[in-house]
Amino acid sequence: MTTPTNRIAFQGEPGAYSHEACRKARPDMEALPCRTFEDVIEAVRSHQADLAMLPVENSTYGRVADIHHLLPESGLHIVEEAFVRVHISLLAVPGAALSEVREAMSHTVLLGQCRGFMRRHGIRAVTGADTAGSAKEVASRGNPSLAALASPLAGEIYGLDRLADQIEDRQNNTTRFLIMSRQPDYSRRSDRMLTSFVFRVRNIPAALYKAMGGFATNGVNMTKLESYMVDGVFTATQFYADVEGHPEDPALHRALEELRYFTSSLDMLGVYPADPLRETQRQDA
To answer: CA 39 to CA 18: how far, in whole Å?
Structure first.
């Protein structure tokens, strides 16, 4: 029997937003940084970690590139989702003043989320490899005119001062993460469960339309449906879907049975509780 490691793997440097997601969702576990998403998955498969924390989409910038290709082939199972608000801080070496900062370094996506603040303070954007890596670089250079845009956690880890907090243009900017495990957990752990799966439709006319009909007629809410090519072939399309409910719910059970009739493959990725922030966002919409 394999001994649990009590580790959760994430992609990026310590202080990355994925690291923050680990601390929020699993504060009792050691966070294990990995270079790539593939490395995160392999860390769990090889028992270096018990869980993987993977970002799948951002409320401002959409889905994370390539992640949906990796999920079906990972051999892992979704056991939870975690929503993390993206709060951005301007981080500089100790003793630096905001008036001294001339440049700010970060991942290009984060730079695009702070345009208003940067413009007001006359700060030029500098592209870095990632957010936490930029904080690490700023700390190593020791230049008070160079700051980083990253999480408060990154500032804590690399010993930087927070010159300004929550400087993002959109205060509701949120990233959705999936927590994945080697073993599935199909137990009903909440009143609001989600089911994720991937499928390919059969080569018949209007197959996708017919496949989706079962969800409409059974009143099942589909919160996400995305398509992507498989193996770089235009004619091979796979669909990723999130729906509300548990597969044992009569309505979802009927919808999935109808879906199976019109698909050439259907693979379950996970059954898991909805993050409470999901309902908050629905009410705010």
So the answer is: 14
